[in-house]
Design a protein that fits this description.
Length: about 120
Amino acid sequence: MNDPVRAWHRLADGSVLLDGFHALKHAVRFQARVPVAVTTDRRAALALADELAPDVRETLDALLAEVPEETLKALVPRPHPTAVAALAVRPSRAANLEALARTPAARRSSSSTTRAILATPGR
């Protein structure tokens, strides 16, 4: 396994902080790219996954690296009570716009706008 602290420092500036178990759980569910995740207690974090998110437990098991409490505090000055923190790759603006264009609401809005323009007198 790569050194999670080294990876954290390398990725921190261009990433989104996932602060706590629930943020990490949702990021994994929505298929965010999460290159590094740390906790001070893997067993406790995986027990939470067993209870609250069995669908992502296997992914979290592979992803979570246990670090000392001092290390977590150095990475995240105010650690979440679940003692879990991770970094997700920040999508580019273009990727965000592309994803938004694929959402059902965007398609409805686009269709409504098109219909409104076509129905405008003089068009």
